[in-house]
Amino acid sequence: MISLLEMKDREYIPNKTYLKMLIGGGLAFSKIFLTNMSDVKKISRKPSSGQKYVRPIKRYILPEYKEEMQYFNTNEKYKRPTLWCNSHDKNIIALAHQLGVFKKTDYEFAEAAFEWSKRNLELEIITLNDVDQTLQRGTGTCMHINSVFTALCRCAGLKARYKMFAAIESQPMYDLYDAMMQKWYDALGFFSIETDIEVYIDGKWVVGHAGPTPERQAGMGVPITKLGEDSLGTWFEAVPGTMFRTESIPYGVGLTMRLLSRLGPGTLNTLNVNTLSQVEAGRKILEAKGGEKKYDEEIRVKFKPKYPDLDYKSDKKNITFTR
To answer: What 8-state DSSP symbol labels residue 235?
Structure first.
């Protein structure tokens, strides 16, 4: 069992910035449920779309793990296993070797890990778990997918950390929500805690967000991002004063998702069904444009992010939102 000292050292314990978000999110969640109980019962239990979510077939076959496979084993900060991110997992090690660990330059391997995570793991709103379960399933939230990318980098001996923030989501993401989730978003000003990943390569931190597949990015109408490109200003904005960097996902991340999965399974079902529809729409867009390269070149010329009509301001004590 991990000690309190280790929890602090690996940054499992929420800092003040995240604790404030955690409390705010919990209060907003409670308010929506208590003040809209009749609507919540209708919305949360029965999928508003009328469709049942079916998890997509996994896009890959995991490589076989062999005992002689090497991996980076250290207690150095940003290189060691942390909560939900076991860089010593056998599936992570085998996949790292498939991607060329210890044979490629640091940047080449980080890029390979980024592209694999981005192109093979599909979005599913689900409760948090360790990277081995994510790889076995083939789906997860942005937090799951970015943790796989992080674990692969740490397995190779690269420093990797989470850059977390309360996300103001773009209009295409907001449109995926059902009425209950939109009320929650409107009450709080954001819905989820999101993360980019920063990997230390050749003396500098390189950002990446491996969450959305190219098909989903086309469905959102955003560029197909690469390693070195930020999610912020593309499909997210950070609520002022909420960003922090951490070695580990802290305790409490995913708490509201666990509550929502229990109290609103229909809402999660609808969100996941809508996400699959967005991915399918993006696939058709890429086909119509003649492939990823042509789509990406065209969208970057005219791209301008769109966000819900939500104005926000911050002061030293509180962050307030008005529509």
So the answer is: T
Angle at 286 between CA 294 and CA 171, to 5 degrees: 105
CB of 197 closer than 8 Å to CB of 165: no
Sign of CA dihedral 162, 86, 210, 121: negative
- Ranges assigned E (strand) in 160-317: 160-169, 193-201, 204-208, 236-238, 244-246, 311-314
Buried b / exposed e along 150-187 (16+ C-beta atoms within 10 A): bbbbbbbbbbbbbbbbbbbbbebbbebbbebbbbbbbe
Query: Domain limits of the chain?
Result: 4-322
- CA–CA separation, 143 vs 37, rounded Å? 29
Helix (H) or strand (E) holding 319: strand 319-322
pLDDT digits (tens, 9 = 90+) for 216-247: 999 999 999 999 999 999 999 999 999 999 99
CATH topology of domain 4-322: C8orf32 fold (3.10.620)
Whether pTM exceeds 0.85: yes
Q: What are phi and psi of 303, to 5 degrees?
A: -70, 135
Phi/psi at 209 (nearest 5 deg)? -135, 105
> What is the tens place of the pLDDT at every residue in 312-322?
434 433 433 33
The C-alpha atoms of residue 133 and residue 261 are separated, in whole angstroms, by 18
Q: Taking a C-beta distance cutoff of 8 angstroms, is the pair 267, 43 a contact?
A: yes
- The answer to whether the CB of 107 falls within 8 A of the CB of 123 is no
- For the four alpha carbons of 296, 298, 304 and 306, in that order, the dihedral sign comes to negative
CA 204, CA 200: separation in Å to the nearest integer?
A: 5
Q: Distances from the Cα of 177 to the Cαs of 154, 201, 221, 243, 266, in angstroms?
A: 34, 37, 17, 24, 11
In Å, how far are 136, 144, 187, 287 from 161, measured between CA atoms?
A: 23, 14, 30, 35
